[in-house]
């Protein structure tokens, strides 16, 4: 072996930076599968690559393990293997596994710089080193070399590094990608702070998506960092929303419109709990309820979650998957369904019943027996609310061939004609509701 000879495995963005750091002090060989690079000491022969004493691995984090396994047959007792990955526990684990029972040494490093930050030289740029599986002589050699190159050497164990990196480099890259996803752009009125945020975005997004995901997945401490970051966001977001929108009364957003079972449920709830000062927002869908709660337009929300005949209310389940909220209470009320039509229509005019999917689930057998020829449909978006359908029918905004089903109160509210009451398959028909807060 040639003394003071180095091979760099991988020649991507950081491999090129590493070459600039080492080229004046070592005989450097660059290994690439596809031999490229004019006037550069490049080889695609692994046997030749491993003639060097020191082997640096400038490969993606996710391929590191497979590279070490593939190259293991070329390791010699006097080799020193050096990783430059942005995570440390992962390469430490790989080295321990693959070098077990051998005399091959391994040094862990993390140069805390890259092509962008080193373009003006390496003066005072930080590098983390961990003695790991090298002897004192080797460790001292590389520590002194990095100092000679005017790098700022930081001695940390792999575990200490990853703990700190998760809340430093991991956060920075996450915020940079978040700003890109947000679409942050330069404006005419940028402050110094805004300019620095744009710099973070540009710097982190210059790195590959592969590096970003590897930083997040191969450091065991970044998962809790992301969770903590999300909780901090929620806490700060909620601090900006007043505990109560209106100081004179509480505002409650409900899934239905006037005359809906949701209105009946909220009236039951406030009466039972002695709530006198309140205002109802009629929001028609569970998604609207949770969105209004999240945005601070409602102090509380109410929506149906389950029916004793129809089962789970899927509309609510889908909405719940998109928002965070707290359950104050779950309670149930008994409900019954009436079939209603416009007053200028007859049953012979009716071809379609438009109502909420849950209504059809609760009245499935009755409808099949008594009205098998009538099509069943649910409206899009807010029109999924049968109370809104009843309102539109009463206002003649829906054709008279359409009927609806729901609380018989709707007929009185919107001047409709009741064709039949108690359409539910079981008389003991209960719907459970969730009363929720932010």
List keywords for this structure.
single chain; 438 residues; alpha/beta; Rossmann fold; D-Maltodextrin-Binding Protein, domain 2; six-stranded mixed β-sheet; 19 strands
Q: Count of helical segments?
A: 17
CATH architecture type of the largest domain: 3-Layer(aba) Sandwich
Question: Termini distance?
Answer: 67 Å
Structural class: alpha/beta
Low-confidence stretches: none
The main β sheet shows up as: 8 strands, mixed
CATH topology of the largest domain: D-Maltodextrin-Binding Protein, domain 2
Which CATH top level class of the largest domain fits?
Alpha Beta
Overall mean pLDDT score?
94
Side by side, the strands of the main sheet go: 3-2-1-4-5-6-7-8
Query: How many domain units?
Result: 3
Q: Which band does the percent of strand residues land in?
A: 15-25%
Question: What would the principal axes of the Cα set say about the shape?
Answer: elongated
- The Cα radius of gyration reads 34 Å
Brief sketch in words of this structure:
38% of the residues lie in helices and 23% in strands. It has 17 helices and 19 strands.
What report would you give on this structure?
This protein has 438 residues and is an alpha/beta fold. It folds into three domains: 2-166, Rossmann fold (3-Layer(aba) Sandwich), CATH 3.40.50; 169-239, no CATH class; 248-438, D-Maltodextrin-Binding Protein, domain 2 (3-Layer(aba) Sandwich), CATH 3.40.190.10. Helices cover 38% and strands 23% of the residues. It has helices spanning 13-22, 46-49, 64-71, 89-98, 136-148, 158-166, 169-182, 192-206, 209-217, 222-239, 261-272, 286-295, 314-320, 357-362, 364-370, 386-394, 409-414, and strands at residues 2-9, 27-31, 42-43, 52-57, 80-83, 105-111, 126-133, 152-155, 250-254, 278-282, 300-307, 311-312, 326-334, 338-342, 352-354, 375-377, 402-406, 416-420, 430-437. The strands form three sheets. It has an eight-stranded mixed beta sheet with strand order 3-2-1-4-5-6-7-8, with helices on both faces. Strand 11 (300-307) and strand 12 form a beta hairpin. Helix 3 (64-71) packs parallel to helix 4 (89-98), helix 7 (169-182) crosses helix 8 (192-206) and helix 12 (286-295) runs parallel beside helix 13. The longest helix has 18 residues, at 222-239.
